[in-house]
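Input sequence (103 aa), recorded before submission:
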Amino acid sequence: EKEQYKEKCKELQNMVTRLQLTNDRLQNESLSSREELSKLRHSIEGNNKTIELLKVSEIKQRTQNEALVRESRTQNMLLSNLQTIHNNLERQEFDRKDRTDKK
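Predicted structure, token format:
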């Protein structure tokens, strides 16, 4: 009977040792998971800040693009008006020469 208790005690001691090892491993995994979670949270915060900066930059670029489009339209209108004025001046010059030649 004493041997049975010794054997049982040995089995229980082995079980305790295995459970302690398992507990240590799980604690290490838990700690690693918490550290990884913390890194991921910081990464997410950084990504969110980057996203906000990109949104602001996109708005600025759209605004600049719209201004450039308006400026381009204005320049095209001015060029068209200048061309019309040039054509009118040439026509007037031609008409003047034509009248002078007919006299």
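Checked by second reader. The CA atoms of residues 75 and 81 lie 10 Å apart.
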